UniProtKB/TrEMBL annotation:
The keyword Signal applies. It comes from the Bacteria. Pfam families: PQQ_2 (PF13360). Residues 101-284 form the Pyrrolo-quinoline quinone repeat domain. The keyword Signal applies. Residues 1-22 form the signal peptide. This is PQQ-like beta-propeller repeat protein. It comes from Novipirellula rosea. Keywords: Signal.
Amino acid sequence: MNRPVWFATLACFLCLSQWMTADVRADNWAHWRGPTGNGVAPDANPPVEFDSRKNVKWKVKIPGRSSGSPVVWEDRVFVVTSEPASNANRSGGLPRLSFKVLCFDRGTGNLVWDAVATTSTPHEPTHATNSFASASPCTDGEHVYAHFGSRGLYCYTMDGKLVWKRDDFGNMRTRNSFGEGSSPTIEGEMILLPWDHEGDSALYALDKRTGKTIWKTDRDEPTGWATPLVVPSDGKKQVIMNGENSARSYDLETGKELWWCAGQTQRPAASPVYADGIVYIGSGFRGAFLGAFELDGRGDIEGTRNVVWHLDRDTPDIASPLLSSGRIYFYKGKSGLLSCADAKTGKLFYSTQRLPGLQNIYASPIAAGGYVYLFDRNGSVVVIEDSPTLKVVATSSMGETVDATPAIVDNEMFIRGEEHLFCIAK
């Protein structure tokens, strides 16, 4: 969501695909990138016009700080946060924090339960715009999982009872102490945990019911903030990961690396998206690359037919791309300059268009009901038509910073701002 807070969002940003788990329905938003893994709510129709007061069904104050996105399952909304512990008064140094999971009633916004996963003092600082709890939670409707990075991964029942925890992964050492933020992904009976940092990087597959390691694959990658995406291929499934050295694919069952392609830029934060046999992976810090990859390659696929197309300018940094209706939407770096391309060919419908109020972006774009929703760190909201022609249909402001990617379910949108959780509804 290498980890200026921006990455938080990204983390806040990492990703269930529509093939990821049979339990995830289109009317839930179980991961920060939604039911398709692409940022789309296929059957939802939230309001187009809203702000911090208009079409607000409810809003609640959220303690502490986090850029982790809300996730929604039926009548429950989950968020994570970190806040100063009750005994946190100290002079100098890093604060002692309580890392918490909060569950709200979707209909009223009332707090149903909150749980302190752990209380500890972080071992290293984070970027000023990042928090110490920037990874988004995820759920399969039976359990909810919260990843606090070096503080561990925690599994709760939907009623807030701790089932298991894993806090034995060690301490991450992030580039320039930018902080942590990659989100885990649920797939079948596994939960996939990315662990890219300035030490020994790896991708873990854990048993989601026990937390025990099923496989661990070492990764030749420095700090990154992307979230894994699981996609189908020839009757099997691949785990797609971004990386500074290479975009990579792994066999879901074994963790074996299948293919890789160099070309990404420094400290990648954007997560992959997928449709119709093609996966799209990009990054945009101190360079630019966005590629479309077929999945049947093996080994190094750079320069092969498996690279369907690629762009080498104006590609996304913190915010992940949006893949909707055969089009891929993405920002230039962290700016609000928006581009839209044909997903099959890479041909641009429009490029680096400046939109009112959009200047500094962490939250990933989302789509529903024929519209694309865009959020700026300054709280600005721009709604455009989901079409090859750029048309702004509404602009507004939430009145506070929005770093986290919102969630859309049915006719409601859940926006996690710097201070509040909003439920937007007509």
